Amino acid sequence: MSDTQLASSGAAPLPHPVRPSVPALPAGTAFFAGQVALVTGSESGIGRETARQLCQQGAAVVLNGRNAERLAQTRQEFEAAGYAVTSCVADVTDYAACEALVGTALEAFGRLDILIANASISQRAYFADMQPGVFRQVLDSNVYGTVFPLKAALPHLVRSRGSVTFISSISALNGMPSGSAYCAGKAAVANLAHTLRLELADTGIHFGVVHIGFTQNDPDKRVLAADGQPVPIAHRPPRWQKSQAEVAAIILRHIRRRRRRTVISALGRLIVLVHTWLPRLGDWIVLRTLRRMRHFYE
Ligand SMILES: NC(=O)c1ccc[n+]([C@@H]2O[C@H](COP(=O)([O-])OP(=O)(O)OC[C@H]3O[C@@H](n4cnc5c(N)ncnc54)[C@H](OP(=O)(O)O)[C@@H]3O)[C@@H](O)[C@H]2O)c1
Which domain of life is it from (predicted)? Predict the structure, then answer.
């Protein structure tokens, strides 16, 4: 919807509370005061930490996930901390559920300023072994799980000249063995952000992508094996991992600065460099490490 279409629809743009460019903020600054954020997949992990920091910086937040019990626990924890929060159980690969999710934000807080498409299922499975339905499940959660919340939220984000962030991965920058559907989905949403930035340029909405690197996981995080069974994620050296709080702080800075792309970690920036300038070297490194450190990928 363009600004002209918005005007003719009779819906007045909301006051725009986002400052265009800011330096790093001292802790406790309520930069997001008056704004409403929807974070998909925020009952756990990085999404929960991002939601927490948004609340701490003054936003009202809608939490989401598919597990009602875990979502209720997270909501209770946030309410106990005095945060402005509500929640909605919704599978973000279901468009009707996404409409209900956005409806929850509007009903509770009356507007929507920030969408963070974070919900995702990952995998530990080589393409040749993967059941087709499992490939689709992983791809759908990353692609339609991003597209559908945005489709449902778009008219409201136009009104607020809001901000949309797709959570991608550094593994989408070059591809990664045992991550076919996940990498394809994460690369797709990065490309989608670019297209939408062009297509919806006159709306003033910020479209950005954050490519996250290795991050500490909740102990009960599960990804899909080739047969669709949930399994623990591959072991990553702890010293290579950022904490969820560090990653959340980077996501918030990305939103405050309305950045197009943020690549987290030195490894992520190295992948960008090698992929762009020395792609054959990049493949050689991956193939060598795949032979020598197979457990790293599995
Ligand atoms: N951790 C890392 O090292 C890392 C690295 C690169 C990128 N990332 C990205 O960062 C984001 C967060 O990752 P994380 O490590 O925090 O993962 P996580 O702990 O598994 O969190 C993912 C969240 O998404 C929810 N979810 C999954 N499918 C959903 C669906 N269809 N509808 C609604 N909610 C759904 C999950 O809850 P339910 O399953 O109960 O619904 C969970 O709350 C993801 O996009 C991930 O790809 C993470």
Answer: Bacteria
Share of the chain above pLDDT 90, in %: 77
From 120, 121, 123, give the residue whose CB has the most ligand 1 atoms within 8 Å, as the site to mutate. 120
CA distances from residue 294 to 126, 171, 234, 238, 289 in whole angstroms, order as listed? 12, 16, 10, 17, 7
- Separation of 90 CA from ligand 1 center, angstroms? 14
Does residue 74 line the site of ligand 1, with CB under 6 A? no
Distance from the alpha carbon of residue 103 to the mean position of ligand 1, in angstroms: 22
- What's the pLDDT score for residue 36? 98
Which one is the CATH code of 3-268: 2.60.40.10, 3.30.70.930, 3.40.50.720, 3.90.1720.10?
3.40.50.720
Helix axes 266-277, 279-292, angle to 10 degrees: 130
Q: Where are the domains of the chain?
A: 3-268
Residue 1 pLDDT: 46
Active site residue 95: no
Tell me the two tokens of residue 120: 């995702």
Mutate to test the pocket of ligand 1, among 40, 42, 46, 98 (most ligand atoms within 8 A of CB): 46
Q: What is the pTM of this model?
A: 0.91
- The answer to whether the CB of 46 is under 6 A from ligand 1 is yes
Q: What phi and psi, each to the nearest 5 degrees, are found at residue 80?
A: -65, -30
Model confidence band, residue 133 (pLDDT cutoffs 50, 70, 90)? very high
pLDDT in tens, 228-259: 999 998 878 888 899 999 999 999 999 999 99
